[in-house]
Structure formats: C-alpha cells, structure tokens
C-alpha cells in the first residue's frame, strides 16, 4: 500500500502522528471538494469565536483585530475565486486556518482555534448555510404559489373532469384542481418554516463534546451569527444531525407533492387528454420520431422525487446506530444536504416555469365531461325532495344501467323514461345535466363552486404572508 512518508503536516489533528497517511485515506477522509461551499459561514463563525475569546481575555484585542483582518482577506479571496486549495487542505476549516497563517503571522493565526473543536465548528457552518438556503427556498416556493393563485383566479371558468382511480368522477373547475396541489405546497411552506426554527440554533462554544473551558459567551456568538438561540447540551449539540434529517424529510414531502402534480400534468398533456400544452421551453423531442413533444421537465420532476427519498433514507440508515457523540460517519450528512438543497431549489423553479408557460385547452376539458359524471347529482336531486340517499343512489344507478342498455348518453333519456324508473323524478330533472349547475351546487367551503374557489384563493394568498 502506498503511503505518504511525511506526517500529516498542516492538519488540525496532526501533532500526535509521527507517520504519514495513505494518500487514498486522505482522499477518502477529505471533504474539501464539497464543504468549500461553506467558506463564508466558516470565516464568519471563526471571527465570532475569536471575538468571544478576546472578550474573555484569552487572546488580546490586538490579536483579535489581526485575526479578523486576515480572515476578511481570506474571505475576499474566496469571493474573487482566487483562493488556492492545497493538498493537505482536507476540509474548509483546515484550508481557511492554513491560509490565515499565510496572510498574518502563524503565531497569531495559531490562537484562532483556542478552545474550539472542529466538531462544533462544522455543525455551526452547516446550520448557518442551511438556514440561508431554506430562506431562499421559502422565497422560491412563495413565488410558485403566487403563480398557482394567479392562474386559479384567471382561469376559474374552465370546467374539467375530476378523477378518482383515474376514472372520470365529477365535474370540477380547473382552478379547483390546481388549488388542490396548491394547498399541498402551502402545507410544505408551513413545514419549511417550522423546520427553520430548529435549524437556526447555535452549537458554537460546545467544544468537542463536553463544553468550553474558557467560559466563552455562547449567547454573544449566537447573536452575532444570526441564530435564534442555543443548543443546550454540548454532547447533543456536536453530534445532532436531526436538523439535516428533518430538512431531507421536508424535501421528500415537497418532492412527493411535486411528483404527483407533475404526473397529473403529464397525463393531461397526452394526445388522449389534451387538456394542456407544454411550452417548448420545458419539452424535448425524439431522436427518431420528429412529431414527438415529450414533457421531459415534468418527467424529471417526477424522477427526482426518488432521488430525494433516497437521500433521506440513506442518511437515516447511517445515523440510526451511531454511539454518542461525534463519529466520522456524520460527515456523510454533508452531501445529502447539499444535493437535497439543489434538487429542491431547481425543482421548484422548473415547476414554476412550467406552470407559468403552459397553455390550457378548456374546450378539450369540456369535451371530456360525460353525463354519467352527474349521476350523483341525479341522486341528490331526489334526496332534496325527501327520498333517503341510499334509495336515490340505487335509483340513479338504474338510470345509468338504462342508458347503457339503450346505448345513449344518460342526458338523452326522456322525462318519461326517468319517471318510468321512479315516478318521484321532478319535471325539471334534466336540468341536472348542466355541468355548470353541477359545479355550482358544490358551494360549501372547500367545494368547486365559483364562490368556494374564490375563497380558497384568498385563503392561499393569506398563507403566503
């Protein structure tokens, strides 16, 4: 096995080691390839920690000023894209501290880490980074929901079949269907905001596992870094990845909902349905069949839901049997978190683009309505005359059977034929077959009547505040 003959020079943990490290082990252990994204959070956390040490007199104010100056120079390098990662920079913490020692004196830079562990450092950076990404996703989701509300309001007059078991069931408004998904996404927004409350707690000042020996002011650091409060047990604070797991669970919830929304639109975009037409912006063609227009944007949304579920299940499987407190296995929480953020962020923006640009074909929706879809209305009409519903349900079923026997739509049965089935049918029974009448009858809160849908739109808008 090839080994590096030099000790682990420059690494934060290298002092007790006299031998080298296997190059493959170095690569296997390193996280700099992905945790470099947290350069800003790591630097800001280090400045807050050094400031607290200066307040306690652990380092001098002059040393703190020099550390802060150096760290801000390092931050400028990252932002300008000129920071150079070196072979022994195993993670973002090592890289920043190494570079700090090159910008200012190594003696002063060596005081930065006084009383601090990478265990607390890494989880502080993760929480700060995820907090900001959650806020960005919140804004993207609000934008998507505003488009849902706007289209529901603008296209409220379009009627379409509502489905159960993918079989035509009852007439509904297109807006009602759209809002059925909208309220699922609104629940996701509520969950995301709840998740943020638990993400935004500070572990900084907890040490490796048992606390800080210099009585560092944890609350001062938490306030400087924008945390809402502290994690109160040092052992739990450094080893907790529930905040990552909860975000992955949230992402799985959201992607489950976006997948079902996408599936509906995939079906509605087929030639057989033709309810909607996808914009070319989110479609692709066939390499063989020139007539094809494939809803690839929607299919990718549906497919990436499985990716989100897998990230969640994988991390939970990794964590489930870990002993207290920090274990290197927890490094495996980084990549699922980063991937989930990208998957969800990209997905909500693609979904917004698809919905903003698709065309609705109300004439195809209306043509798909069928007189059988008001069979329940037929039963309810008799119910309003005092006939028990169980009896009216059976009577309506006989009307369906008669229609099938004669091979004609149920709406074409004559008044005499209806009365032959049951004499209690009123003379205006055929008015039931007006689809707008059927839709407007569902006027209770949450229903598909125009007034109910308009109320839902206002409720949804209020949820976005």
From TrEMBL:
Lineage top rank: taxon: Eukaryota
Xref: PROSITE patterns: FUMARATE_LYASES
Limits of the Fumarate lyase N-terminal domain: 15-310
SUPFAM superfamilies (UniProt xref): L-aspartase-like
Argininosuccinate lyase C-terminal domain boundaries: 372-440
InterPro entries: Arg_succ_lyase_C (IPR029419), Argininosuccinate_lyase (IPR009049), Fumarase/histidase_N (IPR024083), Fumarate_lyase_CS (IPR020557), Fumarate_lyase_fam (IPR000362), Fumarate_lyase_N (IPR022761), L-Aspartase-like (IPR008948)
PANTHER family found in the cross-reference section: ARGININOSUCCINATE LYASE
The family this protein is said to belong to: Belongs to the lyase 1 family. Argininosuccinate lyase subfamily.
Name of the protein described by the UniProt record: Arginosuccinase
Organism of provenance: Bionectria ochroleuca (Gliocladium roseum)
């Amino acid at each position: 096995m090839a080994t590096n003959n030099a000790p682990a020079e420059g690494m934060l943990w290298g002092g007790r080691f006299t031998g080298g490290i296997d190059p493959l082990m170095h690569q296997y252990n390193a996280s700099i390839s992905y945790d470099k994204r947290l350069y800003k959070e790591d630097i800001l956390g280090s400045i807050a920690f050094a400031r607290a040490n200066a307040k306690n007199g652990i380092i001098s104010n002059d040393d703190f000023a020099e550390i802060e100056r150096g760290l801000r120079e390092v931050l400028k390098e990252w932002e300008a894209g000129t920071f150079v990662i070196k072979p022994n920079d195993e993670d973002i913490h090592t890289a920043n501290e190494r570079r700090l020692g090159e910008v200012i004196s190594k003696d002063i830079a060596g005081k930065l880490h006084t009383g601090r562990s990478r265990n607390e450092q890494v989880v502080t950076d993760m929480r700060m980074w995820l907090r900001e990404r959650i806020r960005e996703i919140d804004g993207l989701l609000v934008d998507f929901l505003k488009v849902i509300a706007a289209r529901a309001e603008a296209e409220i007059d379009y009627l379409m079949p509502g489905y159960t078991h993918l079989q035509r069931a009852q007439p509904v408004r297109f807006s009602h269907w759209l809002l059925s998904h909208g309220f699922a996404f609104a629940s996701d927004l509520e969950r995301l905001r709840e998740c943020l409350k638990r993400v935004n707690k500070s572990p900084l000042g907890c040490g490796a596992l048992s606390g800080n020996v210099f009585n560092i002011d944890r609350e001062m650091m938490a306030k400087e870094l924008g945390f809402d409060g502290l994690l109160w047990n040092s052992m739990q604070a450094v080893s907790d990845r529930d905040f990552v797991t909860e975000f992955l669970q949230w992402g799985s919830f959201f992607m489950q909902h976006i997948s079902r929304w996408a599936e509906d639109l995939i079906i509605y975009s087929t030639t057989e349905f033709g309810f909607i037409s996808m914009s070319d912006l989110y479609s692709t063609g066939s390499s063989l069949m020139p007539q094809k227009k494939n809803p690839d944007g929607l299919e990718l949304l549906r497919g990436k839901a499985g990716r989100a579920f897998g990230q969640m299940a994988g991390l939970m499987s990794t964590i489930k049997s870990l002993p207290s407190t920090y274990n290197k296995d927890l490094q495996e929480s980084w990549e699922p978190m980063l991937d989930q953020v990208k998957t969800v962020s990209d997905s909500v923006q693609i979904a917004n683009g698809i919905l903003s640009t698709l065309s609705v074909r109300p004439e195809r929706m209306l043509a798909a309505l069928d007189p059988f879809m008001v069979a329940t209305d037929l039963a309810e009409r008799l119910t309003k005359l005092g006939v028990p519903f169980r009896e009216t349900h059976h009577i309506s079923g006989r009307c369906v059977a008669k229609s099938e026997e004669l091979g004609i739509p149920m709406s074409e049965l004559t008044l005499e034929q209806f009365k032959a089935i049951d004499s209690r049918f009123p003379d205006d029974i055929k008015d039931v077959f007006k689809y707008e009448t059927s839709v407007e009858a569902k006027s209770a809160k949450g229903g598909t009547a125009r007034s109910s849908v308009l109320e839902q739109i206002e409720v949804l808008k209020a949820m976005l505040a």
